[in-house]
Amino acid sequence: MNMVVKKTPPVARDSFLKTLQKKWHLLLAYLLLTIFSLPIGLMFLWLFLTSISTHTIAGVIPAGFTLEHWSFLWGPVEVGGRVLPSIWQATWNTILFAGGLTIFEVIISTMAGYTLSRMNFPGRKLMLRSVLILHAFPGVLLLIAIFYVLNALGLIDTLWGVMLVKVALQIPLSIYIIKGFFDEVSWDIEWAALVDGCNRLTVWYQVILPQVKPGIAAISIFSFIAGWSEFLLLFTFIFSEHNNTLAIYLLAIIGDFRVVNYGLLAAAALFYIFPVLLFFLFTQKFLMKMNMGGGKQV
Amino acid sequence: MLKKKNFVFLLVMVFSLAILVACGDQTTTVAPEEQAKEIITIKAQTAGAETRRVDNLVAAAEKLNKELVAEGKNIVVEVETSIFDGGWADYYRQFKLAFRAQKEPDIYAVGHPNIGWLASGGYILPLCQLKEAAAYQDIFPVLWEAVTWNDQIWGAPLDLEVRPVFFRVDVLQKLGWSEAEIKNLPEKVRAGAFTVEDMTQLGKEAQAAGLVEWGILHRPTDGPEFHMMAKNFGAQLYDPAQDKLIFDKPAILKTLQYLHGLTQNEKVTPEAITTMEWKQVHQMMIDGQALFWYGGIWNVFNYVAQGMPFDEVMDKFDFMLVPAAEKGGNPITLSHPFVYTVSAQTEHPELVTRLLELVAAPEFQAANVETGHLPITKSGIKHERVQADPFLSTVTYMIEYTTFQPNHPDFVSYGGAFYKAIQAVQLGRKTPAEALDAMEAQIKSDIGDNIIIKEG
Lengths: 298, 456
What we know:
heterodimer; A: about 300 residues; mainly alpha; MetI-like fold; 2 domains; two-stranded antiparallel ribbon; two-stranded antiparallel sheet; disordered C terminus; B: about 450 residues; alpha/beta; D-Maltodextrin-Binding Protein, domain 2; 5-stranded mixed beta sheet; 4-stranded mixed beta sheet; about 15% strand
């Protein structure tokens, strides 16, 4: 058998070195990014391996294979001698909460964003400048006041009530984001539509909204993730077990802190983050087109 | 035109609000055929893994319904249970909010020290009539102390635990102790012939012999065991006549000196024990790395949950009261019974009280063994299920020696300051005297004049 030894031509080697010299900063950037991202990647890997392992070596390295920790998907789950209710009720509540929040937020902020971007009315500038102040309030500061409002409306201990509160807290940021997208849409299109006989509502709905689809996608993503991961408001204002969401269900899985089943906790945590990861993977391209704040008519 | 638009907008908003409000009210419709029978729902809530605390109420409701049928009443009682997930502070906060929204449970199961704030805040009803009820006549009398505040009874004790000191039998065997000596140790403690100092020295001996890494372990977080130690050193924590906490400086100083000595002088306890995890500390006992453990009877089930078979726990461990501080003194233990309290807003106080009487029956009390708790009544202790338990039947005598934490609203603040002092001395950051001064400054700032400072 003849071995053919190929020698790298001197020209090719030179060009490789030249590329390296030109793009060393890029390589360095990738190297740094990899180093800084590695702990996060390893964390997810550990979470996955723990969820399918029977035990851990030295409390850290997962070992042995089992699907037992995932059994909450098809059967009751027992934590510290207590049988928890099905995870699917909590999953449905979380979908309802995050989905409802997204719908409310998109409708309200697209209307408000359009108005603030396109219309002149007294107090417009003040409203725009103060809109972010609302978002700057940490929810925890408002808990007592919110309790009194929800209680007065009879909405305490309901998902709808907490959804309303969350919408109110989230809307300022969404308005600010979507207004930037409306600012980018040319006035000519709007004028042409008005000349063709549209009123402002049909212009907004039929002409302008299709132009700001990436913006709508962006605020949808933010709303959905905010709703999916919401804990404090739900934990405070929901008293009934049948209204619990996945975040609170995870708390029940942690159960008595003295005997945490880390395998089950890892599996449930993965189940919890999976829809958000999936949602993010499919919609992240819209996020890249985001232009917060705009620059035209603030 | 503009006015019409405004009107339509307003109408839409009002309509949306009406829908939301309608969604908020969860009324249930009763089918016509069921209307004849009045269903009364009693809500009961607890927290933690011991679901039996509310499950017993469901079972007791069946008995109550039979009694109601016999009395010819057209009422059916249903108990709706819920288990709270989260920390204790969150559990109390949720009750306060739910009470304000009139959505609180009728029966609220809670640790007895909470009676102070629940009663003084008007959240719960006094239950003095329970003391006269037949079902509670053979309760361990000392338990009424745990539910008394301001000379009134505010709760029904539902289960009981004690805090013994666990010791490794195998380590003592290796130290050359005979079977009889080991078996007699709990009795020696009971007689006051074996003190906390003896315990420290024995732990040190086992360490020196290379049998264990540590002589004595205690809980890694804030909790009642530290107040039990303080009581053992003679601390008075509460003055019922004035309804004030007491900061007993000499006794607290002795306790801090003892805990400081464990980690800094005798080195029988890890210096960083207050930064460890529960699981880690349990594992050290399971693996035989320590001789003594200031535990609670439920820890047996923690050990089982962490992989040690029950028979092995019984084989490797024995249990004794907390030894007296001085020779000839009285040993001690402490209980933190869970109690049923009744909401001040309940619409059915009579039915709830009857339910609480029924749930004290021996068969329900005997169910407490499922989670390593003791019955509250003597008839419950005599139940065959309790007598058949190889562990609990050996520790029931400790109930005679039990003490409680005070039912005072400020006790949480006091406990927090005490624990900070303990951490400081055990980590070697402060001397016991310095930690005592810092503790005094903090409780004066947190509690103000509502505490009696006892200097000597």
